[in-house]
Specification:
The protein is of the alpha/beta class. It has eight helices and 14 strands. The longest helix has 11 residues, at about 85-95. Bound molecules: zinc ion (2 copies). One zinc ion binds near residues 55, 57, 58 and 219.
Length: about 260
């Protein structure tokens, strides 16, 4: 399985892009500003999109991409998200004020179809088994465990301290865990309030994770990347913990620990 990291930052600036992963060219996981790294031809290959939550940094690329491919697309795109996320997209994005309602355009065959999903659901998309994971964040959010039968990874989505997650991941046994550590240990309260982890929270959470997966950190706050990674490595000497960068192409299995 090829995971192309188009965006993985907690912000923008100086080339940084927000959460957007492309799997084997056809399945998009979140649609942040990383979408802009795709050529028109590559956007046209996308068939399915799974969204973790409705925060702007995870969806802003979607309406722009639909407008870009509108004249040339041959197949509708299927989007999967929590019912609350679908409602948010309909009410706040595809409402004819912020953007045209692409769920009704073109009339004969709308370019995007919205499919509600729930935590615990199993999807089968593009030959991959996808399990919808619980996430802890101030707005309804999920993560995803994605397997092609041979290799697998889990992505927490935007996620804070979340004790419901670990028993599930201990069963799923992902080869790779992509996990949100947005903040340094110095801003513990901000991290708790905003539903993200600090390095110390990560260390506490990984104590409940019994599978020796490789761990990659995502959603780091711009300007604090080096401190976050230093703190993670210091607290987790027994884990292989690396920073995700946009432009990374991860071919699973990636360097097992
Ligand atoms: Zn968020
Ligand atoms: Zn985010």
């Amino acid at each position: 399985m090829k995971i192309e990291i188009l965006g993985c930052s907690g912000g923008i600036g100086n080339g940084l892009k927000t959460t957007t992963f492309l799997l084997d060219e056809q399945l998009l996981v979140d649609a942040g500003t990383g979408v802009e790294l795709l050529s028109l031809d590559r956007m046209l290959q996308i068939r399915d999109v799974v969204i973790t939550h409705s925060h702007l940094d995870h969806i802003v690329g979607l309406p722009l991409m639909l407008a870009t491919i509108y004249d040339q697309h041959k197949h509708p795109i299927n989007l999967y998200a929590l019912p609350e996320v679908i409602t948010a997209l309909q009410n706040h994005i595809f409402n004819w004020t912020v953007w045209p309602d692409y769920t009704t355009l073109p009339e004969a065959q709308p370019i995007i179809r919205l499919h509600p999903i729930n935590v615990g659901d199993q999807l089968k998309l593009q030959g991959k088994d996808i399990k919808v994971l619980p996430a802890a964040h101030p707005t309804p959010t999920v993560g995803y465990f994605i397997s092609n039968g041979e290799n697998s990874f889990a992505f927490t989505g935007d996620n804070g301290i979340n004790d419901a997650l670990w028993p599930i991941l201990n069963t799923c046994k992902p080869d790779l865990l992509i996990i949100d550590v947005s903040f340094t240990d110095e801003v513990d309260e901000l991290a708790r309030l905003s539903g993200h982890l600090t390095p110390s929270h990560l260390a506490d959470q990984l104590a409940s994770f019994t599978h020796p997966a490789r761990v990659m950190i995502t959603h780091l706050k711009p300007g604090f990347e080096d401190t976050i990674m230093q703190q993670c490595r210091q607290l987790l000497p027994d884990w292989q913990v690396d920073r995700l960068h946009h432009g990374d192409i991860l071919n699973l299995p990636v360097c097992p620990r």
